[in-house]
Design brief:
This protein is an alpha/beta fold. The protein contains 4 helices and 4 strands; from the N terminus they run ββαβαβαα. A 4-stranded mixed sheet has the order 1-2-3-4. β2 (about 10-20), α1 and β3 form a beta-alpha-beta unit. α1 (about 25-35) runs parallel beside α2. The longest helix has 17 residues, at about 55-70.
Length: about 100
């Protein structure tokens, strides 16, 4: 997994992910959350267009991100999920929780 943080507009960020989001990416994902926590953000969109696979740990990381967003007072949503990733988000109902 790699990610790039783009400022979309003022207090909105887009995080563009590439690669797989799996347990082995736990440290990098937590660093991302730390980086987001240090910014003044009102809305963050996780762009999953270039993500091919997410495992249960990756789904758990999305839940942790959602909790951080709720606690810190910013909105988190996902976009671009397709194939396996979209299926996993739908199956676990995370797609409902992380609607754009």
């Amino acid at each position: 997994m790699e990610y790039r943080i783009n400022e979309a507009d003022g207090n909105e960020l887009n995080v563009v992910f590439t690669g797989d989001i799996t347990f082995s990416e736990n440290v990098a994902f937590r660093q991302l959350l730390k980086d987001l926590g240090e910014r003044s953000v009102k809305k963050c969109v996780f762009d999953l267009t270039a993500v091919d696979m997410v495992d249960s740990a990756g789904l758990g990381m999305f839940l942790i991100a959602k909790e951080q967003a709720d606690t810190s007072g910013w909105n988190l949503s996902v976009t671009g999920a397709q194939g396996h990733v979209a299926s996993m988000l739908k199956l676990t109902k995370l797609s409902d929780l992380l609607q754009s």
